[in-house]
Specification:
Chain A: Pfam families: Fer2, Fer2_2. Chain A: InterPro entries: 2Fe-2S-bd (IPR002888), 2Fe-2S-bd_dom_sf (IPR036884), 2Fe-2S_ferredoxin-like_sf (IPR036010), 2Fe-2S_ferredoxin-type (IPR001041), 2Fe2S_fd_BS (IPR006058), Beta-grasp_dom_sf (IPR012675), Diverse_Oxidoreductases (IPR051452). The complex is a heterodimer. By secondary structure, chain A is an alpha+beta fold. Chain A has 2 domains: about 80 residues, Ubiquitin-like (UB roll) (Roll); about 70 residues, DNA polymerase, domain 1. Chain A contains 5 helices and 5 strands, in the order E-E-H-E-E-E-H-H-H-H. By secondary structure, chain B is an alpha+beta fold. Chain B has 3 domains: about 190 residues, Aldehyde oxidase/xanthine dehydrogenase, molybdopterin binding domain (Aldehyde Oxidoreductase, domain 4), CATH 3.30.365.10; about 150 residues, Aldehyde Oxidoreductase, domain 4 (2-Layer Sandwich); about 280 residues, Aldehyde Oxidoreductase, domain 4. In chain B, strand 23 and strand 24 form a beta hairpin. In chain B, helix 3 runs parallel beside helix 4, helix 10 packs parallel to helix 11 and helix 16 crosses helix 17. The two termini of chain B are about 50 Å apart. In chain B, about 55% of the residues are buried. Classes of the chains: A alpha+beta, B alpha+beta. The structure holds FE2/S2 (inorganic) cluster (2 copies). The site of one FE2/S2 (inorganic) cluster has 12 residues of chain A, from loops. One FE2/S2 (inorganic) cluster sits at the interface of chains A and B.
Chain lengths: ~160, ~725
């Protein structure tokens, strides 16, 4: 059913006209042109589409847009603050935790959700929390290091 | 170059320049200093080039020092995660003495970049690199000439640092690249062999540089083919049969009437719908009923290996020496084994994507492709237009691994755009990505070897079905040996044809997969070497060292063994495994430690050491990242990846049933390189992956006594092998 739906995206209120039943991923990428969030499978299997909704990392391909009414959504485009990279972004660059970069936005957003729950995860906790995000280029070890590094940096700032 | 041709890679012919007067493109560039290069000149570079033909109409590599002092580097290669956007800029920056951050890489744009056959085969560092170095060296000389004139000194009195030219003993007398190039347009072709820096003079080469594209990738700004949004653009969805190889009989689109604004495309075997809303296009496509003529299945996941041996009876001898009969006679122990490897998917995280539009007669396209120039030609053929009427643009690629050289999605997008008259975006679903992948072919390796009482290999008889010859030259010294390729068509890529029936022996599409064929043959060879060592009661390291006849390989293995500390004590249930291999000029030795749970058959990799001799390492950090990546991906094919099918019906169509490697199975990985700064650089993107299968299989055997003769080494196969053992 055609309707308009409102939520907060990267700190700004947005209202979109939808057909009804679209996935959040489609709305973010195709209606709102925020293409940093990626389509990897559309089946909930890869994590490329991960965004943070009300402080929880979720797979946008598995959510109907109706489910996010009035919620607060953060995508990779919303991580920088006043032109400064988020510690996770910095750590991914520093550790070179990426190759083709296609899984990267989903990895970073999933890690963001993980660090909210557990600011100083052990190596194993990072692995458990990230396990279902896939990287075909094989950057896993560097991603783990980057997340731990970012955790340390973020704790320093408090 | 046709995809089939590229498949001959098994790579022999790596260059076929297209005839195209490229002088036109010079007009498209702005001012500055432009270095033009004929491919024939590559032969000046000590045979580092890919081609010896002189062809003056075909300019082939160049750079431009722009009027603002920044430098454009044009290359037909593309960036798909292998890091050449950084390493090529690095060699240019070193040679030209500018900051790496002043280099703008223009990659894979068919109007701006020199022709390139494609990004595969770990060729970039070996072949693109020397060309860019030479062009940079030429530009440097031009800049020095102009500076000498301006500053009124002799050229030898000058030196360059970070894009500024100084008088050596009077540094206040200086001029920047920007000042020299301002208002000029100088086009120069390389005429003599330029002076290329010696390794002792390198400032940047050999330094570890963090990827220059990382920033755009962590912010979501890096654009891939599905991220382009055009005005009036429609989304296309192709209607697919359930079985690969099906032919269209009839189309019933009567149910489409319920969708407003939908357009049906029905041309030849292509049936698709387009709509300006992605999800409506996807829904509507499911309502189109197509009757297909479906091929009968002739084989499936389990019968495929026997099928290959039955179907392919022709062979040619790839290499032989000595006499196998003598070899047999002088052997004390003879071991005969059979190894199998199933189909593997490329499964890049970015599915095949393309976005395109027509500007009058001309097609402009962004596509996830490893072969932009090959695509240009394919599109010109498919659309019946001239080559110049197709412009393939630069774009990031979300992983390729050999799977993105065929460009089916881009051709579909272009045909659909032409038919509906609108800009089109086509992004394959994950299911399409699995069904229309060109899989790494299933392969059979039969190996018989003999060894004398001193533990020296005396005989080697190796028959390969469908895995090509890449990397099968023996580095073990075995006097009596023979390596046969079953059906010479095998080595010619995709057309693994049964001559009688003139149809492929494979029920699904096949093609090049990161280090084509070499994964399968290396798994078989190195597993067998281990089996022999075990049978005669020798340590697998000592047995290899005794039989190697290749100094670089021996040194590489020794480096790996020292780094790994081979003689250390093993914990209960743990095992060590070695595999050696050669690919793209690089020697690889991998040693793994795994833990095997004998009750469940589950394998946990604990540690991996990879030593490589890849000649000069341009960017050690980049090479490490590539190596780690190859090994991490390799753990997938070694432990989980298997395409299941019945005929052309591919059953593994998502990541739930086609399992790739994940975080938890990735152990600590240590990469070491032999130090050879004065040697030629060799391939880095592919080699390491070839040894993962063998090293894991051998470690599993060491840990549990389970010898698994078929990749992947799954828990189920380990338990079966344990029952037999
Ligand atoms: S695209 Fe959402 S999980 Fe893969
Ligand atoms: S960097 Fe390519 S998939 Fe992760």
């Amino acid at each position: 059913m055609k309707q308009s739906i409102s939520f907060t995206l990267n700190g700004k209120p947005v209202t979109v006209e939808v057909e009804g039943n679209e996935s959040l991923l489609t709305v973010i990428r195709e209606y709102l042109d925020k293409t940093g969030t990626k389509f990897g499978c559309g089946l909930g299997d890869c994590g490329a589409c991960t965004v943070v909704i009300n402080n929880e990392a979720l797979r946008s391909c598995m959510l109907a847009v109706e489910d996010v009414v009035n919620k607060t959504i953060l995508t990779i485009e919303g991580l920088e603050e006043n032109g400064n990279l988020h510690p996770l972004q910095k750590a991914f660059v520093e550790k070179d935790a990426l190759q083709c970069g296609f899984c990267t936005p989903g990895m970073i957003m999933n890690a963001y959700g993980l660090l909210l729950k557990n600011p100083t995860p052990t190596r194993n906790e990072v692995i458990n929390g990230m396990e279902e995000n896939l990287c075909r280029c094989g950057s896993y070890n560097r991603i783990v290091e980057a997340i731990q590094l970012a955790g340390i940096e973020m704790n320093k700032n408090f | 170059m046709k995809p089939e041709k590229i498949d001959e890679l098994y790579f022999n012919d790596v260059n076929e320049p297209i005839q195209l007067d490229r002088r036109d493109f010079l007009k498209k560039l702005g001012g500055g200093i432009i270095v033009v290069f004929c491919i024939g000149k590559l032969s000046l570079l000590n045979g580092w080039g890919q081609n010896d033909k002189e062809d003056l109409s075909n300019f082939n590599a160049y750079l431009r020092v722009k009027e603002d002092g920044r430098v454009d580097c044009y290359t037909g290669k593309i960036e798909m995660g292998q890091g050449i956007i950084t390493s090529l800029a690095q060699v240019l920056a070193d040679e030209l003495q500018v900051s790496i951050y002043a280099v703008d890489m223009v990659m894979g744009d068919t109007e701006l970049c020199p022709y390139d056959a494609g990004t595969w085969g770990s060729l970039t560092t070996r072949f693109a690199d020397p060309v860019i170095r030479a062009a940079a060296a030429e530009a440097r000389e031009i800049l020095l000439d102009l500076a000498a004139e301006k500053l009124q000194v002799t050229k030898t009195a000058l030196t360059i640092e970070e894009g500024v030219i100084f008088v050596k003993n009077n540094p206040s007398k200086k001029i920047t690249f920007a000042e020299i190039t301002k208002g000029k347009k100088i086009v120069k072709s390389l005429s003599t062999k330029p002076e290329i820096k010696k390794s002792s003079d390198f400032k940047l080469i050999g330094q570890s540089i963090i990827s220059t594209d990382a920033l755009s990738k962590v912010t979501g700004k890096a654009q891939y083919s599905g991220d382009i949004k055009l005005p009036e653009m429609v989304y296309a969805k192709v209607v697919r049969p359930a079985v690969y190889g099906s032919k269209k009989i009839a189309v019933d689109a009567s149910e489409l009437t319920t969708f407003e604004g939908i357009t049906l495309i029905n041309e030849g075997d292509l049936v698709a719908v387009v709509h300006n809303n992605l999800e409506i296009a996807n829904k509507a496509a499911r309502k189109v009923k197509v009757t297909w003529n479906t091929p009968e299945p002739t084989t499936d996941t389990d019968t495929i290996f026997q099928h290959l041996e039955d179907q392919i009876t022709d062979y040619n001898v790839f290499k032989d020496g000595g006499d196998l009969t003598i070899g047999r006679a002088i052997s004390k122990t003879i071991l005969k084994e059979k190894y199998h490897d199933g189909y593997k998917a490329h499964a890049p995280m970015e599915t095949h994507s393309a976005t395109c539009y027509f500007e009058g007669e001309k097609l402009i396209i962004w596509a996830s492709t490893q072969t932009p120039f090959g695509l240009q030609k394919q599109l010109a053929n498919a659309l019946h237009i001239e080559l110049e009427k197709v412009h393939v643009k630069q774009i990031f690629i979300g992983g390729g691994f050999g799977g993105k050289i065929y460009n089916k999605q881009a051709i579909e997008a272009a045909l659909i755009s032409k038919s509906c008259g609108k800009p089109v975006q086509l992004v394959w679903s994950r299911k399409e990505e699995f069904m229309y992948d060109r899989f790494r072919p299933a392969a059979v390796m039969n190996v018989t070897s003999g060894v004398n009482k001193e533990g020296k290999l005396t005989m080697w008889d190796f028959d390969i079905y469908c895995a090509g010859t890449r990397g099968t030259s023996l580095f073990y010294g075995i006097e009596n040996h023979r390596t046969r390729m079953f059906n010479e068509k095998n080595v010619k890529g995709d057309s693994h044809t049964n001559k009688l029936k003139n149809q492929s022996v494979h029920p699904v599409g096949t093609g090049a997969w990161r280090a084509p064929g070499n994964n399968s043959t290396t798994f078989a060879r190195e597993s067998h070497i281990d089996s022999v060592a075990y049978k005669i009661g020798m340590d697998p390291l000592a047995f290899r060292l005794k039989n190697l006849d290749h100094l670089n390989m021996t040194a590489t293995l020794q480096l790996a063994a020292e780094t790994f500390d081979w003689n250390r004590k093993k914990k209960e249930g743990h095992g060590f495994g070695i595999a050696l291999g050669e690919d793209a000029g690089t020697c690889v030795a991998i040693i793994t430690e795994v833990f095997v749970d004998k009750n469940s058959g589950e394998v946990q990799p604990i540690k991996i050491v990879c030593a490589q001799d890849m000649g000069q390492v341009v960017n050690p950090h980049g090479a490490t990242v590539q190596t780690e990546g190859g090994i991490t991906m390799g753990l997938g094919y070694a432990l989980f990846e298997e395409v299941e099918f019945s005929g052309g019906n591919v059953k593994t169509r998502n990541f739930k049933n086609y399992e790739i490697n994940k975080f938890s199975k990735t152990p600590e990985i240590t990469c070491v390189f032999r130090d050879k700064m004065d040697a030629k650089p060799q391939g880095g993107g592919e080699p390491a992956i070839i040894c993962v299968g063998g090293a894991i299989a051998n470690a599993v055997f060491d840990a549990s006594g389970a010898r698994v003769y078929r990749m992947p080494v799954t828990s189920k196969r380990i338990l079966e092998a344990l029952k037999k053992a």
